[in-house]
Specification:
DNA-binding, homodimer, about 250 residues, mainly alpha, globular, Four Helix Bundle (Hemerythrin (Met), subunit A), about 75% helix, Arc Repressor Mutant, subunit A
Chain lengths: ~250, ~250
DNA sequence: TTAGGTCATTTAGTATACAAGATGGAGTGA
DNA sequence: TCACTCCATCTTGTATACTAAATGACCTAA
């Protein structure tokens, strides 16, 4: 176990808390409140927040208190698009440099995922699903790629927290397994296709559901607004007129 | 012109200086020396340095003075590999959402590149070559992608500074033009291929030459060492023996 | 002459002080 | 009741102070 700097510790703690939805999107993150439990000054908290901001996990700047980010729908799509591109490359590299130890490592990870799924521990399942992707990235031994993939996967976890169904576990162990199978067979293009498909499915599960909370507020409101206006139109002329005046 | 924060100003100034080789790899970047010309305290300089570090342009941490980074050969290859993957995706997106205005923009950029090349202004040429890639990324309107591509292109400029020939202008206007031509024709896969090929050539120009300066020091020395030892073996037994003792 | 050691100087790590801007609530007038 | 203003408080932006580590020069001993 290598020792972390104190700023690094805070960074990881916050990141984990955000990813695991202990800190939901929009949660305020005041500097001294964060520092207190760790007994560190705002200086170090600030460093951690800055990194999280550049990871896209918190919104900060312009003297407002930092908050857990609320990625917009379009930003979320952007993230997934880049993630797909990079994970395809991950698979190509892993396939090109395949060793049987890789197979062993991946298999043992899949077993953990299965186990977690059986016990039904949601939190562990979600964490392992993310770690599968990061493990693959690590197999490339390309630190640049590892770094970017880690960032994107974290960001996707946040997106899932925002838009996903409450209990939307990734439930994707089989999809993961398909990727590994293709890798084992040495079928590069099939592996790439499986991965691409899998990430697309994750995206669909994350984004195609009804919004549970968050940035689509205006959309939700305008839907309700038109319903209400429709009711009013059939109900009471008086109220309807007032509504019209207000809009003017 | 939007106003930048003071930290942002320093960040950009340093980045530009590094990319344009005004600050060569290994140059020390002491915090107060950097802050002085801008009249800002170390606090803000520190923020700028932290960002540059996460961009891979400076090495810092562990109480040593920050320096302009010296990417290793393997790190450089990693950067190029990720860059290729992302730029392929850029081309796909731009091709999918092609408009004739894109053509106009790109064409006018190519003209600038031609002009710069004729006047022989190296610095401008290199800068424009990098901007071509960033312009393409911007056409995707995907901020995540823009961000990553910008980082990677900057990093490649640094790599070129380290490993490239002294006067290795990119001299790639034609390669850029080929990409644009394919885009105009709507030939997506051809455009992707042209871009991939172009980036590969940039990499080859950057990395296949002799090392001019830098991290391969140990390799250079060991080459010289063996030459010298060979000479010694044929020349003087005495010296050779001393050499052997020293190694023990 | 050179290897190693000691000390002064430089420079980064971290906390804190202070100013300025954001936030939220009480009070006022319609 | 509602909207709006003003003030007290909280929170951030930035500079600075203090500590401790790194650096480099000089000096000593073999």
């Amino acid at each position: 176990m290598k020792k972390l700097t104190r700023a690094e510790t805070v960074y990881r703690a916050l990141r984990q808390a955000i990813i695991e939805q202990d800190l939901g999107p929009g949660t305020k993150l005041p500097e001294d409140e964060i520092g207190a439990p760790f007994n560190i000054s705002r200086t170090l908290v600030r460093q951690a927040l800055a990194r999280l901001q550049s990871d896209g996990l918190v919104e900060a700047g312009g003297k407002k208190t930092a908050t857990v980010a609320r990625p917009s729908l379009s930003e979320s799509k952007d993230v997934f698009r880049v993630r797909r591109a990079l994970e395809r490359e991950v698979i190509r590299i892993v396939a090109e440099t395949w060793t049987s130890e890789n197979g062993t490592l991946l298999e043992s990870h899949l077993n953990k995922e299965d186990a977690a799924r059986e016990t039904g521990d949601e939190r562990i399942s979600v964490r392992l699903a993310a770690e599968f992707h990061i493990l693959l990235a690590e197999l490339t031994q390309n630190p640049v790629l590892i770094d970017y993939v880690t960032q994107l996967v974290s960001r996707c976890s946040l997106i899932l927290a925002l838009y996903g169904r409450p209990h939307a576990t990734d439930c994707a162990v089989d999809e993961h397994r398909n990727v590994v199978i293709a890798l084992r067979e040495g079928n590069i293009e099939e592996a790439v296709r499986q991965m691409d498909h899998h990430v697309s499915l994750v995206e669909r599960r994350a984004l195609n559901d009804d919004v549970k909370n968050g940035p689509r507020l205006s959309e939700i409101l305008s839907r309700h607004a038109s319903e209400i206006q429709a009711e009013q139109a059939t109900d009471t002329i008086a109220i309807h007129e007032r509504q019209v005046k207000r809009q003017a």
